[in-house]
Amino acid sequence: MGLKEKTSDLKVRMRNALKGGGDKAIEKQKAVGKLTARERILALLDPKSFHEYDLFVEHAAKDFDMDKKYLPGDGVLTGTGTLSGHPVCIYAQDFTVAGGSLGWMHAKKITKIMDHALKLKVPLIGINDSGGARIQEGVNSLAGYGEIFFRNTLASGVIPQISVILGPCAGGAVYSPALTDFVFVVDKISKMFITGPEVIKSVLGEEISMEALGGARVHCETTGNAHFYAESEEQCFSQIKKLASFIPWNNTRKAERFPKKSPKTRQYKIDNIISEDPKEPYDVRDIIKSLTDDSDFLEIMEMFAQNMVIGFGRMNGETVGFVANQPMVLAGVLDVDSSDKAARFIRYCDAFNIPLITLVDLPGYLPGVDQEHAGVIRHGAKVLYAYSEATVPKITLIMRKAYGGGYIAMCSHHLRADFVFAWPTAEIAVMGPEGAANIIFRKEIAHAKDPDKVRQEKVEEYKEKFANPYVAAAYGYIDAVIEPNETRKILIHALEISAEKDVRMPTKKHGIPPF
Ligand code: HXC
User: Fold this and answer.
1) Is 76 in the pocket of ligand 1 (CB under 6 A)?
2) Which of 11, 26, 128, 217 has the fewest CB neighbours in a 10 Å radius?
3) Homologous superfamily of 3-245
4) Considering only the top CATH level, what class is 270-426+468-497?
């Protein structure tokens, strides 16, 4: 065969491989509203940018008649391309080929592209649509997953790792995403579980649908395993592009700068967001939008632990990570879930050179038997650890309440915030005035002729003395008490002055965070 003949032979081979699991399997995939693996990559990446590798990889399994089966590409596509002009490594499991199940060669393709991503220092995107370990390949499939988990861990904090769940993902197919930075799910299409409904039924006798066990909403609202929820695959891909615009391409870089823009101050004006009544809650996301360029804010884990708001915005063109108590939900308390949510995000920002802005308004850690028994001590400690360890610029604004452990935990100077600002409405104390008066003036109140009147007087006395920013400011724990409408200007200056911050932690192999 000469050049021409060999080239047309190559084309025939490629055509065969590109068919995936064949027309019937593709029809089944389409019938449940799913794109094929190839369509997904093409829809996500920049047009014509995808370069595929290892198209001709085949499995070498023999047991259970596997030697008679041809599985094109062994059920996974791998390659490189660009996303909004930036290079990425990508893989997409092909459910039409043996349910996207992971055999040894399938795993080798994934680990090869992971190695590339780590070596080339570019983000890794994994589109998961897989029944998990390929049952016929036994321990080789388990070995494959182990190799992937190891690389996920190596890459953690070095390159961004993004997981997209676009099918029923079981077993190992959910543990790799769990080790990555951001997990995207799509309504009705995404399912994640360690063992599916059938195993649960046979082992425990419990009946549950796939959706109720591990559907997209369950993972966004209840488990906190997923970070972004979309109604369709197309919406999911635009969310990924938006996220990618906020984060740096690896841990040696800063996020791309964008042209500066003013916030939409007509819509988001602090005076209009915060009521004169200190007890009236407000939506802290509106405060964030009053501070960010073009009032743009990409919220992460929007449906989970809503008493804590996290996400990215830009100030003067630079990406910042916001960590904010949400007074509208549980008064913004720190609890088990909100602590986990915040701590992980703080560590993400720190790993990827993204300055942190912390907006504080909380009555403290949530009291109660449930929380104590759920381990609020251990989970709450994660926030203390994450802030203390973070060396990126850390800027804190106390808006209203900062009581007790909440004051310390929400990036106080004591955890090495670079700047702590407070509005005149800030109240910084060991606990709220009512609780405090009841404890320290208990005897006086009990013995008073009119206990309610004395209680109220003591509450006022306590408020006057402690529930303001000036006691903390007198000790230098607050750098400046600022006018609310000056906030953006002051935070931007603090960010600019901190741009070259260079702080090193003591030399150690690694710390032991309260995982
Ligand atoms: C081999 C598999 C497979 C698997 C699916 N298939 N999962 N083949 N190994 N793990 C094949 C099916 O046999 C079928 O092949 C095709 O993929 C499509 O699967 P269906 O069952 O027809 O699809 P659907 O009804 O949509 O159900 C999808 C599913 C279900 C929920 C994922 O297939 C399922 O429960 N699979 C097993 C899940 C599981 O328990 N995996 C092992 C996890 S243990 P044909 O030829 O009929 O088209 C694990 C260990 C690692 O992963 C743990 C690390 C911590």
Assistant:
1) no
2) 11
3) 2-enoyl-CoA Hydratase; Chain A, domain 1 (3.90.226.10)
4) alpha beta
